[in-house]
């Protein structure tokens, strides 16, 4: 089977740093992606790791350790608009994405 | 780039009916995939189309079917609707061999089955 585990909810204040973890068990692995989804909106691509290590894109960074089947998304200088659901997703065969259950991030003033 | 557009945005159907959802892929994208997202859950892969052929399918019954047209637009058809089919249906487009892992999603169609 395939499964990705994430914390269900994380809370933080504006300006803070937050880390969202993801552990996965999948039959095929071609990379780990992160998507942001606001309520009622489309998932929006944030970051992708095919190899071990850290990828940085502005305020967002993502890390992957394939030997540990683990990754995380790091959000810095949090803003109110970052309040959303965040999904990790493994890219498997046929380019399909297997998504985790999502982490709801609540940013307060 | 116009992004991915889906229609309709909302739909209410009765159990047993059939429904067709539509998607226009982002310009230049030749691969389209469909996902079902139940409330509070992550999207679940339904199937993917490339060059008008289905080339990957998730754990969904045959009453979920699709089409991809030469202009890369796509349809998702669901027959014999069940109450559990109520969900947000997302279309995602990409180019073959998307190395970055980045797929462009539409805003989805919210289907309610009563």
**Which band does the percent of strand residues of chain B land in?**
over 45%
What would the principal axes of the Cα set say about the shape of chain A? globular
Fraction of residues in helix of chain A: under 10%
- Uncertain stretches of 5 or more adjacent residues of chain B: none
Strand content of chain A: over 45%
- Could you give the order of the helices and strands of chain A? EEEEEEEEEEE
How would you classify the quaternary structure? heterodimer
SS-based structural class of chain A?
mainly beta
Show the largest interface: A-B, 27 and 29 residues
Distance between the termini of chain B: 37 Å
Helix % of chain B is: under 10%
Largest sheet features of chain B: 7 strands, mixed
Number of strands of chain A: 11
Describe this structure in words.
The complex is a heterodimer of chains A (109) and B (114). Helix content of chain A is 0%, strand content 57%. Chain A has strands at residues 3-5, 9-13, 18-25, 32-37, 44-49, 53-57, 60-65, 70-75, 84-91, 97-99, 103-108. The mean pLDDT of chain A is 93. In chain B, 0% of the residues lie in helices and 50% in strands. In chain B, the strands form two sheets. In chain B, strands 2, 4, 5, 6, 9, 10 and 11 form a seven-stranded mixed β-sheet that branches. A four-stranded antiparallel β-sheet of chain B has the order 1-3-8-7, with no helix packed on it.
């Amino acid at each position: 089977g395939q499964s990705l585990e994430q914390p269900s909810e994380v809370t933080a204040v504006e300006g803070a740093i937050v880390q969202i973890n993801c552990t996965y068990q999948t039959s095929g692995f071609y990379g780990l992606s992160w998507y942001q989804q606001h309520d009622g909106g489309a998932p929006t691509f944030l970051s992708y790791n095919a190899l071990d290590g850290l990828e940085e894109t502005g305020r967002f960074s993502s890390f992957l350790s394939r030997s540990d089947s683990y990754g995380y998304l790091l959000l810095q200088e949090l803003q109110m608009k970052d309040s959303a659901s965040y999904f990790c997703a493994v890219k498997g065969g046929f380019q399909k994405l297997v998504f985790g259950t999502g982490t709801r991030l609540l940013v307060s003033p | 780039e116009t992004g991915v557009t889906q229609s309709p945005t909302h739909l209410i159907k009765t159990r047993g009916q059939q429904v067709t959802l539509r998607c226009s892929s982002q310009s230049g994208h030749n691969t389209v995939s469909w996902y079902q997202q139940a409330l509070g859950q992550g999207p679940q892969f339904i199937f993917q189309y490339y060059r008008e052929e289905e080339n990957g399918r998730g754990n969904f019954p045959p009453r979920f079917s699709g089409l991809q047209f030469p202009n890369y637009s796509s349809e998702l058809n669901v027959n014999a609707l069940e109450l559990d089919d109520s969900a947000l249906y997302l279309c995602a487009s990409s180019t073959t061999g998307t190395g970055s892992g980045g797929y462009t999603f539409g805003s989805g169609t919210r289907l309610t089955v009563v």
